[in-house]
Structure formats: structure tokens, C-alpha cells
């Protein structure tokens, strides 16, 4: 582990004690990329409860690994704001917020209310048949081959298909959208991220114009034509809303599926346990979401604040390492064990508080269907021999490729 002397001094505010400074390579270091969940679960043993870290994706931020600390931050937006929380490049002369993520209460509610009905449990339940049908169509394409590259053949196309259908976007653009998601979420070169941002912006502005002229039943159309409180959204509000939905829907379920199916491939007895206990699928999915949470949660302090004796200042950045929080041994007994009969406790896979993920019900549905249908049709599979798993750097954790055979 590095020390303060190994890091750019400009990244370390004067009020940060040197003994709390670490450079742990979170999301891009060799230990993380070799085994990210082992690494994050181990933070409880290797690092203090709160420490200050710098790195490509965690530049100058306080790191929180404990469940209770992350839980507190997520539920106190008056102290920890989400404004400017996402790292994507934006034009400072035409700055927009990602809505509703970067909007705090009370304004947050008016935006969230626009789409909550479309993501309710009842609305998502109506999508089940279509998702199950699409999952089986994908499996049809490779089941007889005895092998697949899971990320390309199933893990990516299923959630992106569901997302595009929900948003009212053309399925023919799937490969383009996937390329943009990779460029924005995993590019190590800022120039690449900026280029992709320009391409996405131009495309989405065209889509917004089309939906304004030809409304449909999709999410983008609902945003474009929304009038919270009787007032239409501004062009900047619409774009910030649409862009956030676009990027939020493209990578998280994909990454989770890849992590889960890698584990299933490497643990045949546990895979059989799932097959033998179909009535426990909801608890199974919840435990896998705990073990394989894929995102982090960034905030900025709106005021000076003390946490466990650590003095933080207004303007400081905070990163709640949600995967680590879900391995907190003070909350989850034997947290490194995958236990499908675990006593149910709220997990932080979908953040929490007012900014809890709108798509949580949909994500759970996609995971449940994917596991159920894949294991029904291909109950015995393994990682292709000789495969070395490599993980994407960046803020969404998941393997780059996953070659399976059966």
C-alpha cells in the first residue's frame, strides 16, 4: 500500500491526517483487477474504517467501507450532496446535471415521480414474459454449440435488449450503444471518453427531438413530455434526465450477470443447489447481489462533518465502497460465504435513501430469469480451460470476457 509521499500533494487537503492517506489502487490497481471482490472484502481487514485515497477513479476522496457509514451517507443528502457526483466529462459552459441522480431533495422528488410508475413492481412484473422469451432466444443461438462467450452472447445483449425496449430506442443500435457504454464507463483515456460523450450527446439530442414530435410509450418519451407541477421540463433538464437513464441502464446488470455466471461456472455444487431449490430463487438472487455488488457511490460534503473522530471539510469528496459495505462482518455473519439461506437484511447493491436505484426491481427480475432459464437449459457448464479472467477498470466491476463450455 502506498503512502502520502507517493501521491500528488495537490490531491491531499491540508486537513487530512497523513496516517489516514492510502493509495490502494481502487478500481484500477493490480490487486483490484486480479480479484476485485477478494480485494474489496479484505478492506475491512487491511484498511482503517475511514481513509483518504487518490487514484484515477477515486481522486482525493474519503473512502467508506463499513455498512453503517455508507447507510448514513446515503440517507443524509442535506450533508452529502450528489451534485456533480458522476465523473463523465461535461462542457463547463453548458453544464448539465444527471437527473435525478445529481438532484437533492426537495427537487429530486418531482423528477423521480415522473418515472417511478414505469419502474414499479407491478409494471416490471408485466415485462417478465418478454424478458423470459428474449433470454431463451439468446440461449437458442448457442445451446447446441456446447460453448459461448457469455458476455457477448448473453450477458450484454439481454439487459441491453430490455433497456432499449423500455426506453423506446431501436434494437438495431445495440452494438453502438454497447461501444459507447464501454467508452464512457471504462476508458482510461479521457480523450476517448470525451469523444464518446460528444457522439452520445449528438445522438440523444436527435432522439429527444424525435420523441417530442412523435411520442410513444417509452421512458424517453415520458421524460420529454413530462410536466411536473404543470410546468414542462427545460431542454437542459430533459437532456440530463435522458443521458442519465441511457448510461445507467447499459452496464450494471451486464456486469452483475458476468460476475454471477463466473461464480456459477466455478462452483458446480452451489449451482446444483440453486437448481434443486427453485422456490428459493428470490433469496438466491438477493445473496448474489450482495456478494457481487458492482457500483460505488460518490458524494460531496455540503458542510464540515465529523465521522468516527475523522474531521471532514465542506467540499470534500466521499466514496462509499458499496461492495465492501456488503461484506461488512459487523452486519453480515461470515460475509465472504455465499449463503442462500442467510437471514434477510437490506443490502446496498442499489445504494439507498432517496437516490436508491429506480431499476432495482427490473435488475432483480433480469437476474432471476437469467439464472433460472440458463440453468434449466444448460445445467452443467464450466469456464473454458486455460481462461485467465481480466476485469474492467473503472467504476462498474465485472470481467471483460467469460468463455463457457458444456
Q: Which key terms come to mind for this protein?
A:
Cytochrome p450, 17 helices, alpha+beta, 11 strands, disordered N terminus, 406 residues, six-stranded mixed sheet, three-stranded antiparallel sheet
The helix-strand sequence is: EHHHEEHEHHHEHHHHHHHHEEEEHHEE
Overall structural class, as computed from helix and strand content, comes to: alpha+beta
The number of helical segments is 17
- Count the strands? 11
Q: What's the architecture, going by CATH?
A: Orthogonal Bundle
Cα-based radius of gyration, to the nearest Å = 21 Å
CATH class: Mainly Alpha
Low-confidence region ranges = 1-9
CATH topology: Cytochrome p450
Spatial arrangement of strands, main beta sheet: 1-2-3-9-6-4
Mean pLDDT: 90
Task: Give an account of the 3D structure.
It contains 17 helices and eleven strands. The protein is α+β, with helices and mostly antiparallel strands and 406 residues long. It has a single domain (4-405), classed as Cytochrome p450 (Orthogonal Bundle), CATH 1.10.630. Strands 1-2-3-9-6-4 form a six-stranded mixed sheet, covered by helices on one side. Strand 7 and strand 8 form a beta hairpin. The longest helix has 32 residues, at 235-266.
In short:
With 406 residues, the chain is α+β, with helices and mostly antiparallel strands. It has helices at 30-34, 36-41, 43-46, 67-74, 107-115, 121-125, 128-140, 150-155, 157-167, 174-186, 190-213, 219-224, 235-266, 268-276, 281-291, 322-325, 360-377, and strands at 21-22, 50-53, 61-64, 80-81, 147-149, 297-301, 305-307, 310-312, 317-320, 382-383, 403-405. It has a single domain (4-405), classed as Cytochrome p450 (Orthogonal Bundle), CATH 1.10.630.10.
